[in-house]
Amino acid sequence: MKFSKFLIFKVFFLLISYPLYFNLPKANAAEEIKITYSIFSRTITVNSLKTFAKEGKSTRKLKKILTATGSSDKEIRAVLNKEFEVPITIASKLVYSEIGNVFLTRLSSIIHTPRATDERTGMLALRASVIKGIKKGNGKINLINFFEGYPTETVILDVSALSKVMNKVESISELLTFFTNSPLEKIKTN
């Protein structure tokens, strides 16, 4: 009698716990980017952005969003394909440093997880995305690798927050140069 109760309990426990531990769906990479601006939002897939970056072909939805930027397709593709060679050890030091934490915390107001209620969650997701993106690019990172390394299925890109930052910076290339070269040079010399 005791044995059968124990066996029933064990089988019940296995049936309940098996899906929890072994069958959890994992988000290995972002599949879509939700672009928000005030109360408006549009969603594009990372694959459509990747196809556009590589081949210049875009879906109708992506074309509408790209047209709204006011930039030429060539300029947008150049930004998407711009690669930065960063050894993973240096990137790791950077994203785990004090300046890296400050940068990622500020960036998490622009790029964040769908249900992030705190800056730390966004910062950790960005950190993972940078490291996975560099690994995916074999020591190089671009925006596509960055999004493909993002640890949730959906990435939120807040255009309102981005425009506030962009108002402080003259151009995207100046922004990229500032955030990639300046901190990296300090870390390389240490």
Question: What do these coordinates show?
Answer:
This protein has one domain (26-189). The chain has a four-stranded mixed beta sheet with strand order 2-1-6-4. The termini are far apart. 64% of the residues lie in helices and 12% in strands. It has 190 residues and is an alpha+beta fold. It has helices at residues 2-22, 46-55, 60-69, 73-81, 88-96, 98-107, 119-136, 143-148, 159-168, 172-189, and strands at residues 32-37, 40-45, 84-85, 111-112, 140-141, 154-158. The model has no long low-confidence stretch (mean pLDDT 78).
Helical content band = 55-70%
Q: Estimate the mean pLDDT confidence.
A: 78
* Topology as a string of helices (H) and strands (E): HEEHHHEHHEHEHEHH
Number of DSSP-assigned strands: 6
Uncertain regions: pLDDT < 50 for 5+ in a row?
A: none
Estimated radius of gyration: 21 Å
- Share of residues in strands: 5-15%
List its traits.
two-stranded antiparallel sheet, 190 residues, four-stranded mixed sheet, alpha+beta, single chain, 10 helices
